[in-house]
Amino acid sequence: MSAACEEAVSGQAKTLDHVQKEEEGQTPPKVYLDMCALKRPYDDASQPRIVNEGRAVARILAAVAQGQILALRSPVHDAENSRNRDVVRRATVDAIILQLHAADIDPAGVSKRAEELHRRGFAAADAAHLASAEAGGADVFITVDDRLLRTAHRQPRLLKVSVLSALDFQRRYLP
């Protein structure tokens, strides 16, 4: 993880605006980060965009650690990360995934919805993540994948979850 990302994770996440808990006992907003987002803090930091996205993901994960946001985990995370050939990176991301809240989802329902989303233009892994996010009741799906963002924004009524880039989520909810 870059020094800037580590600083963002260790620093205090600012209070959430629009999704802040209004009363005691209210559950935090649910987000679902796809694997591209979860791995972004560990990508090559030679490009400013990657650094900025890595910082945004680190701030989101810091807010998760502080209980301001509930981040969901699905079997799709485990399956996709298990295929990572970089053993160190796989173990690092596994440690993050294990800290996320396991969503109680129906695998058959997720599979059926993922097939539908795939037919509508989403890559297979993206469709599986989106279907899992919907099944888990996520409010926001967070990614750094431009193709997924374009496909989602072309079909906003198709999805049952709001799809945002990590940078957009940070700007809106973690100012």
Q: Please, could you describe this protein's structure?
A:
By secondary structure, this protein is an alpha/beta fold. It has one domain (33-173): 5'-nuclease (Rossmann fold). Helices cover 54% and strands 10% of the residues. Strands 3-2-1-4-5 form a five-stranded parallel sheet, sandwiched between helices. The longest helix is centred in the N-terminal third of the chain and has 18 residues, at 48-65. It is globular. It starts with a helix and ends with a helix.
Ordered list of secondary-structure elements with their pairings:
Layout: H1 3-10, E1 30-33, H2 35-39, H3 48-65, E2 70-73, H4 75-82, H5 87-99, E3 101-102, H6 107-119, H7 124-135, E4 140-143, H8 146-154, E5 162-165, H9 166-173
Parallel strand pairs: 1-2, 1-4, 2-3, 4-5
Helix pairs in contact: 1-3, 3-9, 4-5, 4-7, 6-7
CATH class descriptor name: Alpha Beta
General form: globular
Number of separate strands: 5
Strand content: 5-15%
Could you state the order of secondary-structure elements as H and E?
A: HEHHEHHEHHEHEH
- CATH third-tier fold name: Rossmann fold
Say which CATH homologous superfamily is assigned: 5'-nuclease
Rg value: 15 Å
Structural class given helices, strands, pairing?
A: alpha/beta
Tally of individual helices: 9
Spans of 5+ residues with little confidence (pLDDT < 50)? 1-24
**Helical residues, percent:** 40-55%
Separation of termini? 22 Å
| Total number of distinct structural domains | 1
Main sheet makeup: 5 strands, parallel
CATH architecture: 3-Layer(aba) Sandwich
Mean pLDDT: 87
Query: Which strand order does the major sheet show?
Result: 3-2-1-4-5
